[in-house]
Amino acid sequence: MGLQTAAVNWLDERFPLVEAVDAELYRRVPNYATALYRYLGGIAVMLIVVEFVTGFLLGIYYVPDGAGNPAPAYASVEFIQHTAYLGWLIRGIHFWGANLLLVVALLHMTLVFWNGGYRAPRELNWMVGVLIFLVIVLFSFTGSLLPWDANSYLARAREISIISGASVLPDNVSGFIKYLVQGGPLVGPSTLLRFFMAHVFLLPAVISLLLFIHFRIARRQGPAEPA
Q: Residue 74 contacts by C-beta under 8 Å, 6 or more apart in sequence?
């Protein structure tokens, strides 16, 4: 306890740590903000943190590409699932946490919409929240290819064709989008590497920035009052 107090005092002299923690722990919440309305956003953030931690642990053994050969990706996932210590548990938490995150984020958006959180002056934060949800969907889309098994390969190939809008957009636009996403005429090593880079580097950076903006605006404006 003495060491803990000394560390907190040392930090508090250089940064208002205690003041910042107290401001969050004892922040008044309006009576009209129900438990679900208050807690679903926090649950979603905790699930994002769980995904970051378990994703880092999976990345210790995951090999996305080996000199242009995507076969090590499948072998590394098999190693994680069947050989690595508690690898099956970490992968299971990551998989089911991702599914639960989609459900919780959708419920949070639904309740915010129901309470009129999209109205002025909160429309900017609503748009940021929608972008966060889209990034979560992209996390699911890019991460589902990484096991590189038959199911993920065929499903992503079909979804890329849908995204490219082959039957709606002009052929040149559709072909450009498809080539940009999969990195070639077919789903292959370039697709796996692009999805891996987006899943591990690009999307975490984007969602971290969006969450920071989302929190700052939400703390300033507070929860929306139902109409």
A: 147, 148, 149
Are 66 and 154 in the same domain?
A: yes
- Each residue's pLDDT tens digit, 81-94: 999 999 999 999 99
Among residues 148, 133, 58, 129, which one has the least CA distance to residue 102? 133
Contacts of 155 (CB under 8 A, 6+ apart): 144
122: exposed, middle or buried (C-beta count within 10 Å: 0-12, 13-18, 19+)? buried
Is residue 20 assigned to a domain? yes
- Residue 58's domain comprises 34-221
**Calpha distance 143→55 (Å, rounded):** 10
Dihedral (Cα; 66, 67, 68, 69), 10-degree rounding: -40
Do residues 110 and 181 both lie within one domain?
Answer: yes
Predicted structure pTM score: 0.87
Note whether 41 and 6 are same-domain residues. Answer: no
Paired with 66 in beta bridges are 69
